[in-house]
Amino acid sequence: MNKKQALAALVIFSFLAASASAKSKQELLQQLNAGDIVAKMKTQLELTDQQVDEVKKIVEDRLAKEKQLDLEEKKQLSRVLTGEQMYTWNFLQNEVAQEKEKKKGSKKKGL
Q: pTM for the whole thing?
């Protein structure tokens, strides 16, 4: 195996590992966000338990559609970008998501 092949294999492996990790984190964040959204709506709108159940289904459906769109975008990008570019793009996206979470957390602490 030459250096280029080894580097390509390393990049692809790293990409797959990062993608798997990012997906599980993203799924967890989406679940938390759905719960956060519904809890906030329940408080602010004084929802009944029945309304909470219905709203939760709607919010979860929206988040699932967003996730599907994200996956489709990644598939399309992977047809255009190299493995290394995809790895870098995913890394940058994870950094942006982490910054958003930090800002969100600091806003909650400031309340």
A: 0.55
